[in-house]
Amino acid sequence: MAAAGPSVFLLMVNGQVESAQFPEFDNLYCKYCFVYGQDWAPTAGLEEGISQITSKSRDACQALVWNFPIDITFKSTNPFGWPQIVLSVYGPDVFGNDVVRGYGAVHVPFSPGRHKRTIPMFVPESTSKLQKFTSWFMGRRPEYTDPKVVAQGEGREVTRVRSQGFVTLFFNVVTKDMRKLGYNSRPADTQSDPGPSMPQGTPG
Amino acid sequence: MNPKEEKVKIITEEFIENDEDANVGKRKKNSKVQRQPRKKQPPTTGPDKMMLEESHLGNQQELVQDEPQTRLLSVTARRGPRSLPPIPSASRTGFAEFSMRERMREKLQAARSKAESALLQEIPTPRPQRLRSPTVKELETEFGTESGKEVGSTQQEDDTQSYARVKFHVSARKIKSKPQVPPGFPSAEEAYNFFTFTFDPEPEEAEEKPKHGDGTHQEEEEGEEEPPTEEGANRMDEEELLHGKDAEDFLLGLDHTADEFLAVRPAHYESVHVRLQREKEMLFIPSRLTVPTYKKLPENVQPRFLEDEGLYIGERPEVARTNQNIMENRLLTQESGRRWFGDDGRILALPNPIKPFPSRPPVFMQEQSIKAELETLYKKAVKYVHRSQHMIGSGDPAGNFQLDIDISGLIFTHHPCFSREHVLAAKLAQLYDQYLARHQRNKAKFLTDKLQALRNAVQTGLNPEKPHQSLDTIQKTINEYKSEIRQTRKLRDAEQERDRTLLKTIIKVWKEMKSLREFQRFTNTPLKLVLRKEKVDQKTDEEAYEAEIQAEISELLEEHTEEYEQKMEEYRTSYQQWKAWKKAQRAKKKKKKQATEEHPEEETEEPYPEEDPVKPSPPEPTDRAAVEQQVRERAAQSRRRPGEPTLLPELSLAGSVTPNDQCPRAEVWRREDVKRRSVYLKVLFNNKEVSRTVSRQLGTDFRVHFGQIFNLQIFNWPESLTLQVYETVGHSSPTLLAEVFLPIPETTIVTGRAPIEEVEFSSNQHVTLDHEGVGSGVPFSFEADGSNQLILMTSGKVSHSVAWAIGENGIPLIPPLSQQNIGFRSALKRADAISSIGTSGVTDMKKLAKWAAESKLDPNDPNNAPLMQLISVATSGESYVPDFFRLEQLQQEFNFVSDEELNRSKRFRLLHLRSQQVPEFRNYKQIPVYDREIMEKVFQDYEKRLRDRNVIETKDHIDTHRAVVAKYLQQVRESVINRFLIAKQHFLLADLVVEEEVPNISILGLNLFKLAEQKRPLRPRRKGRKKVTAQNLSDGDIRLLVNIIRAYDLPVRKPTASKFQQPSRSSRTFREKHAASPDTRSPTHSADYPLGQVLVRPFVEVSFQRTICHTTTAEGPNPSWNEELELPFRAPNGDYSTASLQSVKDVVFINIFDEVLYDVLEDDRERGNGIHTRIERHWLGCVKIPFSTIYFQARIDGTFKIDIPPVLLGYSKEQNMIIERDFDSVRSLSEGSYITLFITIEPQLVPGESVREKFDSQEDEKLLQATEKFQAECALKFPKRQCLATVIDISGKTVFITRYLKPLNPPQELLNIYPNNPQATAELVARYVSLIPFLPDTVSFAGLCDLWSTSDQFLDLLAGDEEEHAVLLCNYFLFLGKKAWLVMGNAIPEGPTAYVLTWEKSHYLIWNPCSGNFYGQFDTFCPLKNVGCLIGPDNIWFNIQQYDSPLRINFDVTKHKLWKSFFSRSLPYPGLSSVQPEELIYQNTDKAAAAELQDRIEKILKEKIMDWRPRHLTRWNRYCTSTLRHFLPLLESSQGEDIEDDHRAELLKQLGDYRFSGFPLHMPYSEVKPLIDAVYSTGVHNIDVPNVEFALAVYIHPYPKNVLSVWIYVASLIRNR
């Protein structure tokens, strides 16, 4: 089987959760995790991570810098269910309770190379003003039952969210054997340079 | 200003007056200017002068700046009366308002008369105007304007008059020096005071003064004889003073004194008049009166009406007449206002821009008309101009069509730079070309030959050699020939003559050229004409000539004779007539002779008056000589003389051109000019430039050679092909000389075949050159005196060829003509398709194609190109019109592979099935990339399932009925799952977002209280663990924690009092030695058990999903382990979704074993040295807890009754032995052993939620509402207590719960067993119910909802959970006449469940419908722990007591304080009909089938046991088996009670040699698998004693309705030696 060609393709993602822009908040940390389809499996690296707490920079841009590395390799047989990175940012509120400051998700870029992604972050809203007040007062803001919800479309219609800020991520993406399996994910401008070998057979 | 200055001014003014415009604007300012010319006018000065004089007299009006003009012009006639009144008025000012009014009246009268007179005067004025000098006229214009104003002002005459008055006073006062003190005025003169006071503040007076002074100055200046300014001013003052004095005098006696003391000042008031007056100064109010035309036109210009002259003038926009007048007046006062007026004296206006009709359709208010508006109108499609028409494209794969344009060169036949010689040369060349052309055709020769042939024909026709032809026809043809000959001859003569003249002209031009060359002494052109003489044989030539002439002569003669004959004929007839007439005449004469004799005079006279037919002269015979003469003359003229050599002109370019240095300067310039010129051509295709030739220098011979071929790849239909000739002189920009239109080639013309054609062009440019060049479009002459002028235009010829290109494979790249109708038709016509297939065939492509195939058209023939194109389109089917409409016509484009192929692909199939959530593939991970990597077996299960859907598989079920049921259940499950999958898509906010609920006061207070709570309380409470959603779990994440705490009342070993235990010393149990037991029964063993005998050494083994864990061994019948066992949980297919977890059917088996040690030491001698024991374990009993229960309950905590087989050989309950225990009294009530467990899952899983969907119902809406209300109320009070009012039946409809309860008959045979013992019958019935297999809904319906099936459905399905069992049992009890209720509550281990409560005379009994056990209300081991509600056949009672444990509650439902009833007085029971059937019908089970099943099960189990012992030999003891088999029916009949001893005795009797360990298992029958599992869990097979033997017996007792009770007796036997 192996002689006939690869039976999986690999996607190596490294990069970092570089910084965030949350104009109203400070002392934030972030969690990330990956959501991927059934045909995907991580082969190396960390699927989840939680960063240090960072404070706002003193300069004008007031960036919250984490520089939190991401490094993971997936193997897959099917681009369906391409991995998404789900980010959730937490930080203390006025009373010192850790509350969620934003959820966001983005697909891992599928073309090889370095990519910058800026994800708008949002939080679910309280259902009523009173709840908003109590949740603020109690330090128990509405949260998603699972942060991975933001990577899915199911059931989102029942939620209302408010945007909070932005998180900037950098990805360095390396793929292996995708072309051999017939998936061409290169950007158009680098298309001209032919891959090491032409696809040997149609997948599937 | 002194007079001198003034004079200068006058001159300037006069000068200015010429400039009318300037003057008009300044009119007001230069009032004097207007006046001055007036003086010069002799006729009109009269009145003016008088006016002026009047002003001298002190008439105040002159001082008024505006007024004078009006007065000047209009008042002339009645100046006297007008001028007078002011003085009296002035004097009479003292009189109050009365006098004023009087004066007004007078004024009015005066004004009226004045207006009349003004009108009168106006009429005659225009006439003299035009005759006047410009200056005068200028004045007149002014005058006219003024008069117009005057007319306008008549309406307000009195006002103006009063103004005048006021004005006078004002100005007069102003002019007055300061000493004039207003307060000195008498009060009666209020009006005047008024004016004087309010008019102007002091400082302004000073300002005003100079102005007025100026005004007076002007006044003075006007009149030359007027006194100087001071004088005038003084006089004014005097007047004013006088005036004032008058007034003063008048008022003297009245107010003078008062005035002196009191400075009474009147209130400041500005009179309306004054204000108007002032406004008049500031504002200009244009008159509304019509302006006379002459004012608007320049002097001496009659209005011109263009319209009358026939010119078109658009309709003027409509403007009200008055507005127009106002505008005109305004314009006239403006500077250069007159330019606004047109020739007709009206304001210039553009035509009315307003369209006569509205361009927007009117919007109608009615709806109906709107509909009409929206009506669609059919408009015929407009054919698109084929300008942008694209070439086919679809038909031809190549799709490119090419047009080759070969531009070989350009020749100017005339060019501005032509010298005279060039002109001649061009002419010569042209003539020569003509000559050549003529020569090539040689028409003369052709005609000569024709003539010859005709002559021959005539001669042969005359020969009488052709007898068959009738003479007539011969004659006829000959005649025809002859006429033909005549025609031809004429033509030939003309041709010959033309040839000759051409030749002559050529020679003449050549001679001219030669002379020109000689004259100018240089040659410009290399043109040279050579006349070649071809010598001819004089004689033959002469002969031929002569013969020709003779022939012609003879022909002519013949013609002439013919003519002669014809004439002769005519002559003869006329002669005959004449003769006749003569005869008559003669006869008359005779008569007359006789008469003449009488009247001789008359005779001569008579004939004259008569018409005298002239005697016809006979035609003259043709004179041969004359004819010959004629012929010869003509021949000489047009033909070469005989013997004269034939002249053949030959034009050659052999001549030498004179080099530049020998030419005169003009010629050199010309040549240089020529050199500077270059020419190029642009190729325009469809009016777009596509290419251009290189720019080539103009040769001295005015020829340009390009030799370029342009290949035009065209896509658009060629419409026009144009060449543009551009000429560049030096470095200037190119000028377009001419455009040459090339014809689009026929499709027949392809490259290679196309001839070079010449297209002439000419330009109309006019060029005059200052050198020898003759120019273009300008006359020039060859003669020295300039006569005989010629005008030549630039012209030339482009030689080119245009053709269609031929492709590589020889196919002409010709666009098909099908798109062009004309082309198409012509092509068809050419191929004659229509004639062969009919017109209808043209539209029928197939027919056409057929025809084309039949007629074998040459596909390469360009003629057929359009047709072939058409046919190829038609036959390829691309353009065939489908008879259906495709909605997504592009779908096929996107289908990169056909559907069949897609289905064939295993990978796509797998993906597809997975996305469809087919259970087998729902969690398939990493679907391989390639088909070849997917094993065929992946699909096998699925395919098998699909195949088996309708085939009843009996292998697993053995019993056919159950197989059917299983199928049915499967189908119900599928449909229900599908139904709920949809419902599951609906998410609630709570599913996604965790949000704290709004705390109410109590919670808030509690929270506040919590703040004060101790951090480490002394009595800590269990805190809820965090629940984990199932989705992100994987294998190994979930563990099952089983905490085994203790057990009660385990059976203890019974001392083997049998005879054979005694002798076998080796068979003494190890334990027995140590267990100190005060066993009174076995005194014989007391020696063996020195210390208190250990009755039992139990340990617990937990097996779950084939993982086994066990505790340590404890001792005694009431052991305490307190151990936690951890078992991993693995979800099916690794799917940890809620739905999947809910459907886990695995069961946790908790087995209690007794560890028995056997001394295996064979030799007693070694006893002292070593211990050889073998551990055996004896199964005591088990507890089974389904995983689903754990999953839903999250934790299971409690004491459970151990399921102990009815017969446990070698063991007995030890109640007799341990009497001292405290709880004996309690235990005595319920026999059995118990175990205390705590089971949970780590981490805690979120159980699936029941479906929130509302189901439709057939219940009354009121009832449903009441149900909701009831449930809500109950939930509010006791949220944890179960309250059920409606349930969902198997078809998914909401049904009120009481409808399920109804007395139903149990099987009759059960009733017959104990007809007199209701209690026994009840137990029997309960047992029957418990024999129906238990299948939790949550498993069957994936935990989505609880479905309640009716009792008959339940019995048919033979599967159900607590509800169904309870309902059936309850119904049976009701039938038996008991008071029975359904108890909804919580039990262990089931969780929320349904039990049955019966009232037995004095006490309540609680029945577990699934096990058939019953408990008293106060039984502590009753599994029912909480009671939520009771349900009877006609009501529901909710437990509103403080406690819910059955031990502590009162079941008396009549007490409303304790039980809240659903139906009450307010809502009476409506008498709901039951959903249950009237009666249950039981079929007796086929006994034979049961026996067969029994055998099969036995066989299967035996095989299984052998399988489980792969390393050991499994021997079956047949004897024992048969013994057991006999024993099992007894067990069934006695329901496992009271037979132990008999059984034991019998066994002992029969199997004396064996150590026997075994037990019967009793289960309801559902499937084989649970049986196997049960057997496995006992661990019988684990015995690995070498000589062990096994016995297994199965007994199935059939009950009605296929309810089967299964007994399995498993035993292991070890032979005692």
From TrEMBL, chain A:
UniProt keyword annotation of Glycosyltransferase present: no
Gene Ontology CC: centrosome; ciliary basal body; MKS complex
Keywords (A to Z) from UniProt: Cell projection, Cilium biogenesis/degradation, Cytoplasm, Cytoskeleton
Region: Disordered, residue numbers: 183-204
Subcellular location, record wording: Cytoplasm, Cytoskeleton, Cilium basal body
Biological process, per Gene Ontology: cilium assembly
Keyword Lyase carried by entry: no
UniProt superkingdom: Eukaryota
Pfam families named in the record: B9-C2
Family the entry assigns: Belongs to the B9D family.
Biological function: Component of the tectonic-like complex, a complex localized at the transition zone of primary cilia and acting as a barrier that prevents diffusion of transmembrane proteins between the cilia and plasma membranes. Required for ciliogenesis and sonic hedgehog/SHH signaling.
Subunit structure: Part of the tectonic-like complex (also named B9 complex).
Descriptive protein name: B9 domain-containing protein 1
The species this protein was found in: Microcebus murinus
Automatic annotation (TrEMBL), chain B:
Coiled-coil segments: 437-498, 550-577
Basic and acidic residues bias spans: 208-218, 621-636
Keyword check for Coiled coil: yes
Ranges of Polar residues composition bias in the record: 1058-1067
Keyword Disulfide bond attributed: no
GO biological process: one example: non-motile cilium assembly
CC per GO annotation: MKS complex
UniProt KW keywords: Coiled coil
Region Disordered, residue ranges: 17-97, 110-162, 203-235, 589-661, 1056-1088
Highest rank taxon of the organism: Eukaryota
Biased composition range(s): Acidic residues: 219-229, 599-611
InterPro entries xref list: C2_dom (IPR000008), C2_domain_sf (IPR035892), CC2D2AN-C2 (IPR028928), CEP76_C (IPR056288), CEPT76/DRC7_peptidase-like_dom (IPR056290), DUF5523 (IPR041510), Tectonic-like_complex_comp (IPR052434)
Basic residues biased stretches: 25-41
UniProt-listed SUPFAM superfamilies: C2 domain (Calcium/lipid-binding domain, CaLB)
Domain C2 stretches: 1022-1200
Signal sequence residues: none
SMART domains: C2
PANTHER family (UniProt xref): CENTROSOMAL PROTEIN-RELATED, COILED-COIL AND C2 DOMAIN-CONTAINING PROTEIN 2A
Protein's name according to its UniProt entry: Coiled-coil and C2 domain containing 2A
Organism: Microcebus murinus
